[in-house]
């Protein structure tokens, strides 16, 4: 249990350090836009576009991977039940209303890394752009005050792992 407390204390310290260094108004606006780009509808649109261009295998990879990712995401959320920063830190209010109660892992970050992995497999010349975007999604979730750094790190691992699994199973 001491290891979990140490990780949590490091997470809180890092969270406060990041909050103290951001230009609140400008970065909050940018973080909202970046975070919204990782909402689910964009992924459905990408899958539909790929399917409409005859890439049914790619669409199947996205569908299968997201089903696995969402199942694991919900199991982890309900198992760990980690409260969000605004719920446990004194005098802190997040900049957006989170979509659910718990913070671990970050679903936005998980979805972003899942898509970055998939798109990088299909369009390798743009991998830096895809992964830069996914890192910005994770950072935006921290800057908006709805996740701790380890929430987004686990989201990145979860999304990437589910994408790898999806390719292993379907390709």
TrEMBL record:
Gene3D superfamilies, per database record: Phosphatidic acid phosphatase type 2/haloperoxidase
The membrane-topology field of this record reads: Multi-pass membrane protein
- Cross-referenced SMART domains: acidPPc
Record domain Phosphatidic acid phosphatase type 2/haloperoxidase: where: 59-167
Q: Which residues cross the membrane?
A: 30-51, 57-76
Q: Which UniProt keywords apply?
A: Cell membrane, Hydrolase, Membrane, Transmembrane, Transmembrane helix
EC nos: 3.6.1.27
The protein's superkingdom reads: Bacteria
Report the InterPro entries cross-referenced here. Answer: PAP2/HPO (IPR000326), PAP2/HPO_sf (IPR036938)
> Where does it live in the cell?
Cell membrane
Where does it mainly reside? Answer: membrane
- Catalytic activity from the UniProt record: di-trans,octa-cis-undecaprenyl diphosphate + H2O = di-trans,octa-cis-undecaprenyl phosphate + phosphate + H(+)
Q: What is the name listed in the Swiss-Prot or TrEMBL entry for this protein?
A: undecaprenyl-diphosphate phosphatase
Source organism (scientific name): Marinomonas ostreistagni
